[in-house]
Design a protein that fits this description.
With 237 residues, the chain is an all-alpha fold. The protein is built from nine helices and no strands.
Length: 237
């Protein structure tokens, strides 16, 4: 009984992943090629013009994070175009499995983003200065974990609001949180010093920091799924 239920659940999740993949490639192969190639290309150009490895790594992580976060918003935007979300009502996938499938698809894309960052940093190292394999892996892992967390945070917004309103709410939230943190650091020098010490501790104990980040991601995904299901479950398809 449980085996059959698990198989049905996996089939439903795979159907949702297939739907999201078809939505992604519907924009054309050139769009996909640009989407997956612009980060390595841009960072290699930076390395060729003499940028430091730190700036190249920052650009790679920032570019991958912003680009692949937009993919999440793009999927929800596609569902709203021409009332395409009506397919969610006829494809035999429960809302829970739709949410789980969307998360699974995005996590796979996040892994691709991490691979892009690793390749970008490795190429930059060849063109500019030697790069340790552990450093490239660490940057890639941080990219994946950051993207998973960001997608977990924005998912309830995207189920609650239209993509454009959700994007506005996300940007506003980031601005408020970022402004608050910067203001507190300026007003409280002790806090700024603590943040710097925390950053140094993370760089010294990268493996422990990544493990802690992974736990945070798992908890964020579980909480995001619960909130998203509550919001999505109350909507009419």
């Amino acid at each position: 009984m449980n085996t059959t239920a698990n198989a049905d659940a996996m089939t439903a999740i795979l159907r949702q992943i297939s739907l999201d993949w078809n939505r992604t490639i519907s924009y054309g192969r050139s769009y996909i090629a640009i989407f997956f190639a612009y980060v390595p290309g841009f960072t290699c150009l930076m390395a060729a013009t003499g940028s430091t490895l730190a700036s190249v790594a920052g650009a790679a992580i920032g570019g991958a994070a912003s680009g692949f976060l937009m993919l999440n918003i793009t999927l929800f935007s596609y569902e709203q175009m021409n009332n395409h979300h009506w397919m969610n009502g006829i494809v035999p996938i429960s809302r829970n499995h739709q949410i789980l499938g969307r998360f699974a698809f995005l996590i796979v894309c996040d892994l691709v983003a991490g691979l892009e960052v690793a390749v970008s940093i490795a190429c930059a190292g060849i063109m500019h200065e030697p790069v340790k394999v552990t450093d490239a892996i660490g940057f890639a892992a941080m990219t994946v974990l950051t993207l998973v967390l960001l997608n977990a945070i924005v998912q309830p917004f995207l189920y609650r609001f239209s993509p454009y309103r959700a994007m506005a709410a996300i940007i506003l939230s980031i601005g408020v949180i970022g402004g608050t943190v910067i203001g507190l650091c300026k007003a409280l020098p002790e806090l700024e010093k603590t943040v710097e010490q925390l950053a140094e501790a993370i760089s010294r104990h990268q493996a422990i920091a990544l493990a802690a980040f992974l736990i945070i991601d798992v908890l964020a995904l579980a909480f995001s799924r619960k909130i998203s299901l509550h919001i999505y479950g109350s909507k009419d398809i």
